[in-house]
């Protein structure tokens, strides 16, 4: 878990992070309905963001934690089946917040996969109080305690540059193509998790240690 200020993210215009597409389905009726329900329980954009983050983190199982083989990619699929990898859960959170007018981006880390390799991990960044703030909705478990914070980050994992890990500063309006390709090509999410997840972002140079 991190407990430090966010690394420098791209200085992106938040108005470019409100749209909908075939994966970030911010205009899907079920997504909009849940977004409105969450907004009705809260008073401010910050409270809405926290409510949506907590809902996705806690109400949608992480595929590997749940040992669930179903493949989900789009926001509506994740909402319907209540399961997904970090990428898919981030797609739903992004769609929920955009449906209620909160600029939300996708962003990524490169992390040690525990077997001498590296894997791309998906997060979101919300634009509130005039700045971007990263959040990790992958779901908590023993050793993982990600929390909502607009101050010091409280992500699932911090990066260790000595192991080749890094934070990517790029904010994505749409999911990274390598993520979409991996999920669309999968028939079994557990098989994908064990050996088919993206190990780099091709459009972003990886450090020489990788």
TrEMBL record:
Residues 1-21 are annotated as: Disordered. Gene3D superfamilies: 3.10.620.30. Pfam families: Transglut_core (PF01841). InterPro entries: Papain-like_cys_pep_sf, Transglutaminase-like. SUPFAM superfamilies: Cysteine proteinases. Residues 34-137 form the Transglutaminase-like domain. PANTHER family: BLR5614 PROTEIN-RELATED, CONSERVED INTEGRAL MEMBRANE PROTEIN. This is Transglutaminase family protein.
């Amino acid at each position: 878990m991190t407990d430090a200020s966010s690394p420098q993210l791209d200085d992106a215009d938040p108005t470019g992070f409100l749209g909908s597409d075939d994966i970030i389905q911010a205009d899907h009726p079920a997504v909009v309905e849940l977004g409105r329900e969450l907004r009705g329980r809260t008073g401010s954009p910050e409270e809405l963001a926290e409510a949506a983050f907590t809902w996705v983190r806690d109400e949608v199982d992480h595929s590997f934690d749940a040992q669930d083989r179903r493949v989900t990619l789009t926001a509506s699929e994740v909402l319907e089946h209540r399961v997904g990898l970090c990428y898919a859960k981030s797609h739903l959170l992004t769609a929920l917040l955009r449906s209620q007018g909160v600029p939300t981006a996708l962003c990524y880390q490169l992390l040690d996969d525990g077997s001498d390799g590296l894997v791309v991990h998906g997060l979101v960044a919300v634009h509130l109080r005039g700045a971007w703030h990263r959040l990790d909705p992958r779901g908590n478990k023993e050793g993982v305690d990600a929390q909502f914070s607009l101050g010091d980050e409280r992500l699932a994992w911090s990066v260790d540059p000595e192991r080749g890990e890094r934070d990517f500063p790029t904010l994505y309006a749409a999911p990274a193509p390598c993520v979409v390709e991996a999920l669309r090509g999968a028939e079994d999410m557990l098989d994908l998790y064990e050996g088919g997840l993206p190990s780099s972002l091709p459009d972003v140079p990886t450090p020489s240690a990788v």
